[in-house]
Amino acid sequence: MNNIAIVGCGPAGLSAAIALHDAGQKITLYEQFDQPAPVGSGLMLQPTGLRVLERFGLRAQAESLGQRIDGMLGRVAPNGKVVLDINYRVLSNKLDGELYGVAIHRAALFDILYKAVQTRSIDIVTGKSITGTVYHGVNQDSDNKCTSQLLDSDGSLIENQFDLVVDASGSRSKLAQHSGLLKKPKMLDYGALWATVELNDSSFDKTLLEQRYKRASVMVGVLPCGQIPDQDQPLATLFWSIRGDEYESFRAAGLDSWKKQVVNHWPAVAGLLENIKTIDQLTHAVYTHHTLKQPHAPGIVFIGDAAHATSPQLGQGANMAFLDALALSEAMSCANEHEDYALLYAKSRQLHVRLFQAASYLLTPFYQSDSRLLPALRDSLFEPVSKLPLSDKIVTALGSGLISNPVRTIDNKVSRARRATKKRV
Q: Which residues touch 187 (CB under 8 Å, ≥6 apart)?
């Protein structure tokens, strides 16, 4: 059994705590806030993330609170031309069964994961802002194990020593910067305004994530996302693309001015906007892009956005974090030394992470940027390309996170490692 510290109580940290605890490790979670809580609105659980939640025994709970999503549809405003069309059904088969996504409010997902952590009696230390680690190498008092300690924000060392630190603190990870692996995250020009609204409008298909675009500088989206615990009201996440340097001018112009812009681009959302009474109901999200060359250093492993952050355009964030958590727990179950399981974890995630980081970096400017050329290419080429053989399957595999079959890749890498370990023994 290893003594492991996990920094961060978001989806990455909570899922890692569950996975590693269930693999027989001793876990302590560290959270900077006095009370762990979710941040943001709805998100997409792709088929990949749902498979991981199923292994944790949490899929049924997520589906009961979330909203099944069968596809994503994006149109150009005002002519309605389709420039994004993802249909999960085209990938359904006898082996995997019917495929779909589940949109869920972050508060609902947090509730599921947090209660699972509490049920497992995992220790949670709150009010600690961890800024780095100190790696001690071999500790004679710990059976010659290499240990690490956590640095608090005041520069003091937290007394406990750990066999491993898992950084799940997000895209602006201070631990990744302290390790020297992350110099400075690349800030993306465009972020978004997010709001949770009641979904009572029958004009919206609850099984679709829908978006409207004007070039790539304007994007309005509606994501039906189920309900939050102990409430029956169906909800949706409404989001609006915005440049980071335009946020202050947006606030200065006021809520009514913004609503007029949104309705001008997509009149059908007018009813949803009635739910938004104050400007503070809109959360401003800014995005970064980075991929660590190696998601580990002596005594520490990086998962989720701390290891690979990007725009949410492909809807993969939480799913990538779940896959990281699964890969790390599986790697630790069949390797004895830190170098072994850190490398195995990195190798089992390398292909999938690189594919989707590259895809997100290349595709995001077609939907969020100041470019005029890229959205013009998107608008003119999407329809003829979509008619090519297998194009619908390729697009859907990309949008659903299933390219490279990441869960099977993890299983295969770990199985080979187990066989190799047995041969050495």
A: 244, 286, 287, 288
Q: Which of 379, 352, 309 is nearest to 79 (CA)?
A: 379
The number of folded domains in the chain is 1
If DSSP codes are grouped into helix, strand and coil, which group holds residue 8? coil
Distance CA 296, CA 395 (A): 31
Q: Distance between terminal CA atoms of the chain?
A: 19
What is the tens place of the pLDDT at every residue in 174-197?
999 999 998 877 899 999 999 999
Nearest to 214 by CA among 249, 262, 283: 262
Residue 382 confidence (pLDDT): 92
Q: What is the pLDDT of residues 340-367, one digit of tens each?
A: 889 999 999 999 999 999 999 999 999 9
Q: What does pTM read for this prediction?
A: 0.94
Q: pLDDT tens-digit profile of 35-57?
A: 888 877 899 999 999 999 999 99
Non-local (6+) Cβ contacts of 242 within 8 A are 190, 191, 192, 193, 250, 284
Reading the block at residue 8, the tokens are 């961060």
Is position 179 within any domain? yes
Range of the domain at 389: 3-64+105-185+290-424
Tens-digit pLDDT profile for residues 19-40: 999 999 999 999 999 888 887 7
Closest CA to 395 of 373, 371, 363: 363
At 18, the amino acid letter reads: I
What tens digit of pLDDT does each residue of 238-263 get? 999 999 999 999 999 999 999 999 99
Residue 408 lies in a domain: yes
Residue 98: which residues within 8 A CB-CB, separation 6 or more? 89, 92
Pairing of strands 186-187, 190-198: unpaired
> The domain that contains 397 carries what CATH number?
3.50.50.60
**Gap between the Cα atoms of 18 and 120, Å rounded:** 8
